[in-house]
Amino acid sequence: MEELLLYLLIGVVALSALTLVFVRQVFYAALALLACLIALAGIYGIMQAGFLAVVQLMIYAGGVLVLIVVAIVVTNREAGQPLRVQSHHRLIGFCVAALLAYLLATAYHQTEMAHSGVTSKELKPLGEALFTTYAAPFEIGGVLLLVSLIGAALTASAFKKSAP
Amino acid sequence: MTINDLLFYLSAFLFCCGLLIVFTKKNAIMVLMGIELMLNAANLNLVVFNHQQSGLDGQLTALFVILVAVCEAAVGIAIVLRVYQYYQTAVPDQVSELKEHD
User: Fold this and answer.
1) Which of A13, A16, A98 is nearest to B20 (CA)?
2) Is B64 on the interface with A (CB under 8 A)?
3) Which of A130, B18, B43, B93 could crosslink B37 through cysteines, CB 3.0-4.6 Å?
4) Size of the A and B interface in Cβ pairs below 8 Å
């Protein structure tokens, strides 16, 4: 049952990523990205990373997607017309992506993975690690969030163009 | 092919899709979406690695990747909005002048 669900989620992720590549309207691309992110959160949940699944749902599907949709709405020049996207350098881009896919697949094929135990599903060791081993990155991350919040608000707000 | 193999190949596929989007799409918002897709591919890899090993390092690294990705998305979209306000376009190719036009 769990395996079947995992195959289904993998299918959803792959299909929505393909949709994202070939879609013409930017808003539909945002919807495909939303489906991709939610399915990825499901995969995280099955791979015993429940906290990460919740974070993915809340921050990506709840936060970043809303930002992207707002940006699509604001940058739509003709009212009533959907925002369309054109593509260029299609052949070069496809060649580079196919080459990278080949490289990654070969590299993975030649690597032997070591299996050492299974991770615990509990939340407690994760919280403890976050406040002991990973305390410094955690604090720096908080500062980074604050700085980017202020920076984004200042950049997007309409200050006067003639100000020195 | 085990389920972990399949997930690694899915991650590689996602990364390549993100790269293709960043290369080919003209709209800056689509480029940002491609970057998000690539970051998610890396996260999926980290989660699957963490599933195979004991310990929680992979999950925590993925958590910090999400944190930095959120900051990147916020600042990136703020820049896109600012550029749109000034140039009336979100296509980077059309933003070709640095000087203020009179």
Assistant:
1) A98
2) yes
3) B18
4) 216
